């Protein structure tokens, strides 16, 4: 971002708050700081370009924000945490479920090789696709569809991030995760607290599951809500 970016100071302050949250939650997450790659990505993405015009002034508050259709763009700290938990090095093929505004996909695009993201609400998916293109995120592909099915034509994925909460880990996503891959997903009932869960698939295909943090996400729905 250029020095004359009017949001630069707010973004810098937000990074400090994310670092503080990381320290405060280290007991649960096992990470008292996030990697430079994660923090650089958080510093690079213009979050104000992903919220509604009237919410631009609060874009860098460390809170979720509404994006229409009853959906929300996640809290910046949660975006950073989920990104960090995937341990990406820059070359990976990543699948995101729940494109929403496209913000998380933009963050992932800085830390991965290719990002594939699926949104079930058509108007949100199309708007995110347009926004990401306008901002120059060339390594992100958006699909309007049902995330429970994953993206079989592009599988396997080195990492998967689910940003809406299913009640249990979708089978198709486990299948589409490469051996050695990691998935981060909030698991739990709708309109309740969920548990952010790390799923690791070993090289021989064995799946292990680890609870990371209590979180609150919108539900991962089974069919498209009305547009
Ligand atoms: N990652 C987004 C925020 C996600 S909010 C961002 O950075 O802005 C959760 C999103 O998941 C919503 O947009 C919702 O419509 C979508 N969603 C819910 N169920 C889904 C499903 N089955 N498949 C794909 N997307 C889904």
Explain what this protein looks like in three dimensions.
The protein has 227 residues and is an alpha/beta fold. The chain has a single domain (8-215), classed as Rossmann fold. Helix content is 30%, strand content 25%. The chain is built from seven helices and nine strands, in the order H-H-H-E-E-H-E-H-E-H-E-E-H-E-E-E. The strands form two sheets. Strands 5-4-3-6-7-8-9 form a seven-stranded mixed sheet. Strand 3, helix 5 and strand 4 (114-119) form a beta-alpha-beta unit. Residues 71-74, 97-98, 100-101, 103-104, 118-121, 124, 146-148, 163-164, 218, 220-221 line the site of S-adenosyl-L-homocysteine. S-adenosyl-L-homocysteine (SAH) binds next to strand 2, helix 5 and strand 4.
Summarize, please.
With 227 residues, the chain is an alpha/beta fold.
